[in-house]
Specification:
The complex is a heterodimer. By secondary structure, chain A is of the alpha+beta class. Chain A has 17 helices and 19 strands. The model of chain B has no long low-confidence stretch (mean pLDDT 96). The chains are: A alpha+beta, B alpha+beta.
Amino acid sequence: MTIKLDSRIPAGSVQEKWDRFKSEMKLVNPANKRKHTIIVVGTGLAGASASASLAEQGYKVKTFCLHDSPRRAHSIAAQGGINAAKNYMNDGDSVYRLFYDTVKGGDYRAREANVYRLAQVSADIIDQSVAAGVPFAREYSGELANRSFGGTQVSRTFYARGQTGQQLLIGAYQALMKQVDEGGVELQTLREMVDLVVVDGKARGVIMRNLITGELEKHVADAVVLATGGYGRVFFLSTNAFNSNGTAIWRAHKRGALFGNPCFTQIHPTCIPVSGDHQSKLTLMSESLRNDGRVWVPKKKEDCGKHPSEIADEDRDYYLERRYPAFGNLVPRDVASRAAKQVCDEGRGVGESRVAVYLDFRDAIKRLGESVVREKYGNLFDMYHEITAENPYEVPMRIYPAVHYTMGGLWVDYHLMSNIPGLFVLGEANFSDHGANRLGASALMQGLADGYFVIPFTLTNYLASNKFEPLKTDAPAFKQAEADVRKRIDHIIALSKKGGARTVMEIYRELGKIMWENVGMERTDAGLKAAIQKIQKLRAEFHNGIKLVIPAEDKERNQLFEVALRVEDFLELGELMAIDALQRTESCGGHFRAESQQDDGEAKRDDENFSFVAAWEFTGDPSKPVLHKEQLVFDYVHPTTRSYK
Amino acid sequence: MSRNNAMTVQLKVWRQKDAKSEGKFEIYSLAGVSENMSFLEMLDLLNEDLTKKGTPPVEFESDCREGICGTCSCAINGQAHGPVRGTATCQLYMRAFKDGDTIVIEPWRAGAFPVIKDLVVDRSSLDRLITVGGYTGAKTGPHADANAMLVPKDDAEKSMDAAACIGCGACVAACPNSSASLFMSAKITHLAMLPQGHALRERRVLRMVEQMDKEGFGHCTNIGECQAACPKEIKIDTIALMKREYFKAAMKQ
């Protein structure tokens, strides 16, 4: 396949590009809109907002989700907030500053034009969400409240207690359900996308697996929108939901869509540490806690086993405040995570496992009083208490970084279209806006920007610019895709009949361990090469036989079988992440190569050689992908060493 | 916080092939349960054990496993989401049980929630309640500046208290009448407390109540089990508000 990467960035200054696109785009006549069917896969912030917005315009939208209800998508778990350049606090914020902070925060590995548009539409998202009934936090004046978040020096984060993702998703979900009521959206729940159908080079449909009956269902459309989230679950342990997975984007990748920057993973600094081998997921403690909590470990190893109250102030190392006086506890996530790993590697970690650091509210409680702290963070403190049986009002929280978000994803152009015409990718599923590190409270912003304010325009332009031959589900491409999926499913059934040494979950945990140890917070040449070999070996074990019970030949709900299908894909995607991390010998954002660091241990970027998006092409052999490069050009935010000192 | 004192528990689990088949309890003895496991991780362990023995795993639903997505369910020892107040099943930890305990695990029982398999029920009836009116009606596009309309902080807080509903259906499962009143009133309160919700206020409550009857949910007779089972501790005061809203809307018709 010859691939030309064209990011299709409109001409003009960065401030003009989006307006220029909107004024020059082609339109679809209102009467013709209902003739176009659009498939949207996923109902998180991006998918729900896209489905509702497209249906409101008059398109026929078919929306699918793998949950029993669209309201359950993992956007719901986002706690802290959503950024927007409203400048309500009058503290010097602007569209340009949000753009600047995001490009810098992403360590200069994002496309300027996309990020500027994101900052431009951010304010509209707040207006939209308020109109949709999102009960954001307010001041006594009745105006909206804001707080600050890591990586920035202004307060631009809007929030709804510690449940901002939930409230924004419910807002988008409700708009979606209104369209279901009005017939604009045909909603199908408990469906998982297992393949993309490409006809004459264009994305024209999907194969869905009915999770209750196991049946394969074919759906035709003029365009396919993937909003299926990130692939952090490749690490097994992450803050992602149990069912979050990479299958939809991986299947699209195998049908020709390029995968952008797969190794860019965000490790969130404030999660509850692992407590045992049984652990199935990790729980995030919102980054907003770093506004008032102070991060520390003992200065001396000998103190690590002591009760924190027995350690005097002069024996505590508030290492973020010490190393980064300007940003202190509010440094970006990648910096905070790596610093926690460093102090634990030095043997100064705390807790039973010694792989944790303290997040201490003692001083905040003294300064503000317990009731104020309770009002701000009460639900997070309760959650911590439930999980650990420790009371954070009395003893400091123990936290440790965990996989949280994947900045990488399918490659898309400015229109959010992949290299397969008609395949659009939104939200965390695409690679586009966060570069090598995402700032806190920017995921919600991007999901809703893509769904509410970008896709309605760019998809319209696509539909107006192309002709669509009538197509039915008995077309050869659909039959072929269905047969391919059937073959895969039969293969897994055969593997389960054959049996193996380990269960699917055991293999999955092992994959997660390989990924965390070698493709996690710190990556080395040797570690990545070892990981590639280990993943290949594990993949061979999987395809040789597994312990899995499939009743009734896959005609009943069987969630472990669903996991097996996802793990099969993760066993390939994990290798691509390691291959990508291996080629990128610089450190940038969440990608830290031990070989590339400054004398003081800070990340060392290599702009001369790595100022590009790595867009990988699937070749048929998961171990032999081909790298394409989209060079990044910085006309406004000139790359400098990112310093938060 | 030791991980070493593993427990053995007796699990009496409801097994049912599908909505049409008869179900029954099966008893499993499960060893190696740590007090730091979540209840769902205990079920994960059970399924690993069953898989190794060649027995079909127990189907149960979960997703975020941190109490916000509303996917997990189960009646545990007869209580929706188990014995600890203000938490969903995924936030229940095995330290709430002791070595040797028998734990009865059932799907939620309600006419409007048919069993799909084992512990999994179909809760799409809740979505259909939202479909007929649980929204403000604002379309995507330019709107007035978010600060153009002030909302008193107390109203916003009351709205948020109700909007915290995770749509799990515990209120229905706990109610002897299988009423969805708490779920409905949470949505009606969320939107009634905000000026943005006012345009569709009357239509919303009338259509939702009508749909509730169609779905086969029962009516509220002020028992209060819903409030006790709600993992987000939504108050039955919201039901009083819903009844007032309904009365006002019905009188205008």
